[in-house]
Amino acid sequence: MSIKPKTGSIDIHIQANRQWLTTLPGLKKAVKEVAIAAGACNVTIRFAEDIEVAKLNHDFRGKNKPTNVLSFPGDGEYQGDIILARETVFQEATAQKKPPLHHALHLVAHGVLHLLGYDHMNSKDATKMESREIAILKKFEIDNPYE
User: Do the Cβ atoms of 42 and 78 come closer than 8 Å?
Assistant: First the structure.
């Protein structure tokens, strides 16, 4: 889908299977809004199953297990790809007593920020990234994910 704001065009492509869409009504619209608020302008966001994310995590990070979100930077004007693992996202949301949609949206914001160069490799950078995530989610009345 392309959205044409006053300053140019934003291309956010969302891929989700039926299980994601039926368990999280309103997913596509909410993801688009959060991704734009986080600074996305040209990304693909894929909602996949754990098995697919586990393979990518193994191939690109050498970790033989799924993870909640992966970000793959693009080149040029294409910011990159973000992929979330359904089973992991739902398990984490349940364990953290959060609505799964809120957790997924937090991970979308987290993934976009990685594409924009944020990281959490040290406490200073982690604090900066987490503060940005909290501010983005607050716009959507989503509680601080770190509390």
Answer: yes
The span from the CA of 103 to the CA of 122, in Å, is 23
Q: What's the pTM value of the predicted model, to 2 decimals?
A: 0.91
Mean pLDDT of 18-32: 91
Superfamily of domain 2-138: Metalloproteases ("zincins"), catalytic domain (3.40.390.30)
Q: What is the mean pLDDT of residues 128-135?
A: 97
Distances (CA, A) of 121 to 114, 128, 129, 131, 147: 11, 11, 10, 15, 20
Q: Is 130 exposed, middle or buried (0-12, 13-18, 19+ CB in 10 A)?
A: middle
**Are 142 and 109 within 8 A, CB to CB?**
no
How many Å from the N-terminal Cα to the C-terminal Cα in the chain? 34
Task: Confirm if 120 and 131 have CB atoms less than 8 A apart.
Answer: no
